[in-house]
Design a protein that fits this description.
The protein has 11 helices and 16 strands. With 347 residues, the chain is of the alpha/beta class. It has a single domain (4-344), classed as TIM Barrel (Alpha-Beta Barrel), CATH 3.20.20. Strands 3-4-5-10-11-14-15-16 form an 8-stranded parallel β-barrel, surrounded by 5 helices. A two-stranded antiparallel sheet has the order 1-2. The structure holds flavin mononucleotide. Flavin mononucleotide binds next to strand 4 and helix 10.
């Protein structure tokens, strides 16, 4: 009998996927000088699609230049950029694989080297600690967004959502994790606001909920996935201080708004020590599609799906190292381990 992991899976509003295997969103930094996608990028995704992955989540795509903090990452804020993704989407679709655009605003994990004259913004005016490894400079000094500026950010996401649909993407994923802008509102370690966007749980989740609500004008929320990362390692365990009360409220509101797809990420951490634990706690609170993973073995992935913890399983680095990863795990063949040197080329 074919296991559930390798069997067809239906997502309401999206359609039938050939299996429950997902290529995780991974920034690669190969966009052209106009932040457009290229035929090289199309080949990279197409190879994974041809080999059988059910769903591809693209690398993070910046919604507006003011949200950029990385070298050579794609944007989706104008027609030219939208056109450049059409080829990727068509090529991936020709192999019957679904593809979502991951929409991303870095907030304070940015720097004016990347924001084309715009100031760095966040929930807070306190800079992130450390160095941006992209330009080897300290992270930018952010300006806390004023209440009347929130709409401008929602409009950036709305515009990118519209462009994503125009490019033919099956859906979108909103990046609400990994310490980027939306997480900067959710995370009590970062959000030090005194207004109705800070302080209580109700206030800290307001930005994410208003953003999703605003997207309803542009897209059916069945086509939207949200990625959050309440627990991950970053020089030790890094967690939202009030993760369970916050998740309880957040997931209830996500449900009421109409969100149906959630991706719980732990970035590059050990799954069982981070997001795997969260997933066990919240599974009963989220009766909809739940996806997660992080370098799980095939056996572990089969078990997470069979036990009902995950509906779909994400792999990241294994897909960078092995364009034919799906075939390799299906046939129980060994696969290459990711190495940092592999970041330098798109194979
Ligand atoms: C090179 C690289 C780039 C990444 N870029 C993103 C990104 O753009 N958006 C995102 O949500 N996660 C990003 N991640 C995290 C991955 O999606 C994934 O959660 C992580 O690699 C753990 O899965 P793995 O152990 O299977 O690689 C990135 C990871 C890597 C290795």
């Amino acid at each position: 009998m074919i296991s559930k992991l390798f069997s067809k899976f239906n997502i309401e509003g999206i359609g039938e996927l050939k299996n429950r295997i997902v290529m995780s969103a991974m920034t690669r930094g190969f966009a052209d000088k106009d932040h457009c996608s290229t035929s090289e990028i199309s080949n990279y995704y197409s190879k994974r699609a041809k080999n059988g992955v059910g769903l591809i989540l693209t690398e993070g795509i910046i919604v507006h230049p003011s949200g950029d903090g990385y070298n050579n990452v794609p944007h989706l804020s104008n027609e030219k950029q939208m056109q450049s993704w059409k080829k990727v989407v068509n090529d991936v679709h020709s192999y019957n694989t679904k593809i979502y655009a991951q929409l991303w605003h870095c907030g304070r994990i940015s720097h004016e080297d990347y924001t084309k004259g715009h100031g760095v913004v966040s929930s807070t005016n306190i800079a992130a600690e450390g160095i941006n490894r992209q330009n080897q400079k300290p992270f930018g000094k952010p300006r806390a967004l004023a209440k009347n500026e929130m709409n401008k950010i929602y409009e950036m996401f709305q515009h990118s959502t519209e462009l994503s649909l125009k490019a033919g993407f099956d859906g979108i994923q909103i990046h609400m994790g990994h310490g980027y802008l939306i997480d900067q509102f959710l995370d009590a370690n970062v959000n030090n606001r005194q207004d109705e966007y800070g302080g209580s749980i109700e206030n800290r989740i307001r930005f994410s909920l208003e953003l999703l609500e605003s997207l309803k004008d542009k897209i059916n929320l069945e086509k939207v996935s949200v990625r959050i990362s309440p627990s991950r390692t970053m020089n030790g365990l890094y967690e939202w201080p009030d993760k369970y009360p916050l998740l309880k409220k957040l997931l209830k509101e996500f449900d009421l708004i109409g969100l149906r797809q959630l991706d719980i990420s732990c970035a590059n951490s050990n799954y069982y020590e981070t997001s795997g634990k969260i997933i066990r706690e919240i599974r009963d609170l989220w009766p909809h599609i739940l996806i997660g993973g992080a370098s799980l073995t095939k056996e572990e992935a089969l078990e997470e799906v069979d036990r009902g913890y995950l509906d779909m399983v994400t792999w990241g680095r294994a897909f960078i190292a092995n364009p034919n990863f799906v075939e390799l795990i299906l046939k129980d063949l060994p696969y290459d381990k990711f190495e940092n040197s592999m970041r330098a080329t798109l194979i």
